Amino acid sequence: MGWTSGIPARSLTATLFAIAAVSRAAVLPDDRADLDWHDWSGGGVTVDGPSVLVRKKVNDSLSLSANYSVDMISSASVDVLSTASPYKEKHTEGTVSADYLHGNTIYTVGFIEGHEPDYIAKTGFFSISQSMFGDLTTLSFGYSRGWDKVGEDVYPHGYAQGDRMTTWIGDADHRNWNGGLSQVLTRNLLLALNLETGESDGTPGSLANPGSLANPYRTARFLGPDGLVHAEPQIYPGTRTGTAGSMQLKYYLPWHAALDGSYRIYHDTWGILGHTLSAGYTQPLFTDWIFNGKVRYYRQNAATFYSDLFPYQDSQNFMARDRELAQFDDWTVGLGATWNFRPHWPSWIEKGTVNLTYDRMHIAYADFHNYAVGGTPDNVPLYAYSANITQFFISFWY
Amino acid sequence: MRLGRVGVVALTVPLAALVLGGCAPIEPWVKPYEREHLADPIMSFNANPVWSGYMDHAYEVRESAHGATGSVGGGCGCN
After folding, report:
1. Structure confidence by residue, pLDDT tens digits, A226-239
2. CA distance A41 to chain B (A)
3. Preferred mutation among B35, B37, B64, B66 to probe A, highest tally of A CBs within 10 A
4. Model-level ipTM above the cut of 0.95
């Protein structure tokens, strides 16, 4: 029932490419290992689990990395409570990648595989990063190709009995292109620009199948002639193309601190326009400590085929009521602390850090109500919730 | 229409400067010895990839917008 978790696979490895995209010289990433425990709690959903990342150079031109992460999900979200029973499940994801350095160019290739009981995602990726102009400029280009298998879990005798049956309802293929530029502007200022476009093809939706780009566990709502709220299956298009562009700036402050800011704009063929703004501050203190804070704001409008409550049954060719396609905005405020240490033993570890971060996120929907099927739409408040995100991780460089 | 002598010069000189200038090496305006601040770990755009990876994941499954974070990304039902 991974779809309803709202936490399908997403790769930590993808983030590793951010390092390549914004690196300031053609050098291989450091040899390091990260042990992480993450915890999400909010909106009736809790997700926690470990993640392990190991990166090691084989020689001066080749670096290998591997990552494995687990999410233990317990969901009683507003969607689950309105149409199904709370549930628990496990999601795992593994990634392997290799970076090859030749001159001022880094070539990266890798593969990601994620598993949920009802969702299997496989992704291959490739990127090139080129340093130029005396290492003041780094250009990068990346391509990824994904193959997803989308299913729906059914419990013929109820969730408590555990006799799950998975019906595979379709495939979803993804192609993604990414270009990046990082630029040293001054001795204190860095700039990073990124442009990314991706397209997804899946089984188109119909009256018999919501389509493989839809969440099969969620339903649309319509107002019946009896004045009550009824449920009907969602119907999604079979394709989606989205483009995002972003700019990041980072500035070194005279008292040994750093200030950063970013903006991202996103638009897709489902009619969604999204804006993301963020700012952060990093301050080293007491020799061995680094503290940081951040604030992030996001807003989007609704997809063209989204409605909180359709006027009557089968009123459109495509119908969606996934919250992710609604109009909403969210705020995140985060704090983090890092303690740097140099262990005396074992001798092959050069340094390490112990990190604790806490982020508080609040989401407020502008057109999503918590309607109960069979009820009336009167006096139902707009849905909103807050979430706590905590991460504890230890990193070693060797 | 004929270009006059001045017109030829006006077109040729900037074009030649552009072409020949493209062959000249670009002098780094921030010298290697001036990059002490930029090399400080606090100036990394992504000092903790595990942390930022999970945060990106948490956002991507709740927001429609995704991508352009410097990552290649992957298909995973995050739509």
Report:
1. 999 999 999 999 99
2. 11
3. B64
4. no
